[in-house]
Amino acid sequence: MKKCIFILFVGMLGITNAQIPTGYYDSANGLTGYALKTKLGEIITNGYVTKSYDNLYNGYPTTDTDNFYEKDGSVLDIYSENPTGSDPYNFQHGVKKCGNYSSEGDCYNREHTVPQSLFNSASPMVSDIHHILPTDGKVNGMRSNYPYGRVTNPTWTSKNGSKVGSNTTPGYSGVSFEPINEFKGDVARGLLYFVTRYQTKLSGFSSGDILNPSNVNKGLTDWELNLLLLWHQQDPVSEREIARNNAAYAYQKNRNPYIDHPEWVTQIWGLSSLAVEDASFSKNLTIAPNPVKGNTINVTGDKDLKKFQKAFIYNMVGQNVQTIENPFQNGNTITLKNLPKGIYILKTGELNTKFIVE
To answer: Where is the signal peptide (predicted)?
Structure first.
């Protein structure tokens, strides 16, 4: 089934309390546009504690443990995680760190969402946990220093579906790397954090077809920014990201503001101008009746919906207006809580779709 995903202002208040320290963002109140971005850069720079690159492995048990899918305490690797079934392999923290590898599952290492070659492996960028994730060594190597992009005809695909191949996003036709849908928003907010935290250093970095050193306010090349804004809109902030942000703050004393306040992304950069219908995000999930004229909806899909422990409803300014615990344990009917007329997004697991309340 093809699903139409309408571009929306992702401004949700958060799925759970984000544990933002009191007053942390007060100096940003009332700001918009690039002035807001500059102020956020100052806020998340103040108090930042630089840790060594090697120490990342000590941080990952708190920031990147699988407490959300299999919940087995393994390393949560976005390049091997299968959000709807068994993972192809798992890593345990501190075990099978790379070294050498020849195949997936041999070892895990540290993936810079912004390749360290672009900033010459300089500190503190080289060890900033907000944009450095634990990932399979082989897949990390296949990603190389390619930009994140959309890959229609991959030349290589990982066991969880991450892809390498020619980019099909307008504006760039080189090789790119596409993660699975479940983590596209995570990646997008990691890169947006990077160009905010390091705005004052950006003019000295290389572009790599990703960064925009000549326009430090914008921070990213037009095509990459456009795609990341789309991913941010399509894949809202998850509980996993909120937990990771809290743990990262405990680890290095700064936060990713676009996890705490996703609405700031559109306040700074606006909306993606890419087509509102994205076949790569199509999912077999339907809502009936649609439009909704009462207070109940019936949800169906080609996957076993009982595996999803929560469902979330967002309005068109991206606010989380309803959270449903164990939504499909006793059937597929969800009762809406007095939602005003309008357009909404239902998200459960990696599935999401639009519905209208009349």
So the answer is: 1-18
